[in-house]
Amino acid sequence: MAEEIPGIGQKDQARDRPRDEPRELRVKSIINGTVIDHIAGGQALNVLKILGISGTTDATVSVVMNVESEKLGKKDIVKVEDRELLEEELNRIALIAPNASINIIRDYKVIEKHPVDLPDEIVGVVRCQNPNCISNTSEPIKSRMLVKARNPVLLRCLFCEQPLTDRIAEYLI
Amino acid sequence: MAEEIPGIGQKDQARDRPRDEPRELRVKSIINGTVIDHIAGGQALNVLKILGISGTTDATVSVVMNVESEKLGKKDIVKVEDRELLEEELNRIALIAPNASINIIRDYKVIEKHPVDLPDEIVGVVRCQNPNCISNTSEPIKSRMLVKARNPVLLRCLFCEQPLTDRIAEYLI
After folding, report:
1. Which pLDDT band, with edges at 50, 70 and 90, does A27 fall under?
2. Which of A125, B49, B104, B131 gives 20 to 30 Å between its CA and that of B88?
3. Calpha distance A148→A75 (Å, rounded)
């Protein structure tokens, strides 16, 4: 367990902070915040996009990309300090990182841990790939995608029924 | 010096790897590669864009955003392992991070260290903000921006002479 969860939970009693993680983990433990682990290698930047984290963010964020993972071969990890991401934010991550796991951290401890889980409908996150769809016009409506399958992800537009399963990251709004 | 350069140079003799960095630094020393430090807070994602690092990269990359900096208040740091970025790549970073410093690392040691420096002309990196400029048409030409000032950055399009100084990051190609 300690191998795959980035430096969570075990305090170094001499110094009152976590024992040093294996070098592969590269990013230190956080005191409070959210850790998203087991993101498919290279997808961290899309995860930040889904969470609305860009150049204008105030949040302290750590990201590693393409580190070794027993489970996935290569993985990315995203840590956001002092912010407990909402469940709806985290579940959108399942669109591009179906194997991701979420750890909510308080005072170095994992107080909540769960896999991501796609809801049945995604609103305003993924654009329909049909250029003629009404959701791609100037009408004041958000995109609405029904989730037909979860691993691999298969979406279908509520309005025009166009399916979307490949390269979903390219259609992130 | 040790404060501002992320964990460079000093090996822990007992363990033959670098002494633990201050907690604020958050990201471990790398063995070989390039470290870009003193990036203006929040600009790391644009730095990755300039370096062509996206979801399809193979490189192992570590990023922290909005960590404390004596020099800048808030800063970002980008580390790219096993890759020594070319000088032309690094100098483009000066467009959005004029105070950045580059450290080339081999076997934990800083073998080369220099500030970023904008060249006199930037080709194919920043798009002209004039929608009527010939460089924004389907003509097979790359954008060409002359560098008229460096801090703050002032660019001028070679073709239509339109200046560009604000929100340069939004015009990155």
Report:
1. confident
2. B131
3. 26
- CB pairs A-B closer than 8 Å: 79
Residue among A44, A36, A144 nearest A91 (CA): A36
CB within 8 Å of chain A, chain B residues 12-51: 17, 20, 23, 26-28, 42-43, 45-46, 48
B33: left (phi over 0), alpha (psi -120 to 50) or beta: left
Tokens linked to A142: 């958000």
**In chain B, positions 84-123, which contact chain A (CB-CB < 8 Å)?**
none
Q: Tell me the backbone φ, ψ of residue A129, rounded to 5 degrees.
A: -85, -5
Chain B, nearest residue to A167 by Cα: B55
> What is the per-residue pLDDT for B25?
58
Do A126 and A95 touch, CB atoms closer than 8 A? yes
Question: What beta strand segments (E) does A9-60 contain?
Answer: 11-12, 17-18, 33-40
Task: State the Rg of chain B over Cα.
Answer: 18
* Phi, psi angles (nearest 5°) of residue B8: -95, 135
CA distance B135 to B157: 9
Tally the C-alpha atoms within 13 A of residue B74's C-alpha that lie toward its C-beta.
Answer: 14
Mutation site, A12, A19, A23, A28, interface B, largest B CB count within 10 A: A28
pLDDT reported for residue A22:
46
A162 vs A52, higher pLDDT: A162
Q: Provide the chain B residues 51-90 that lie in CB contact (below 8 A) with chain A.
A: 54-67
Token look-up 């790939």 returns A129
Q: Which residue of A has its CA nearest to B61?
A: A65
Residues in chain B: 173
Confidence tier at A170 by pLDDT (50, 70, 90)? confident
- Which of A15, A26, A57 would best serve as a mutation to test chain B binding (most B beta carbons within 10 A)? A26
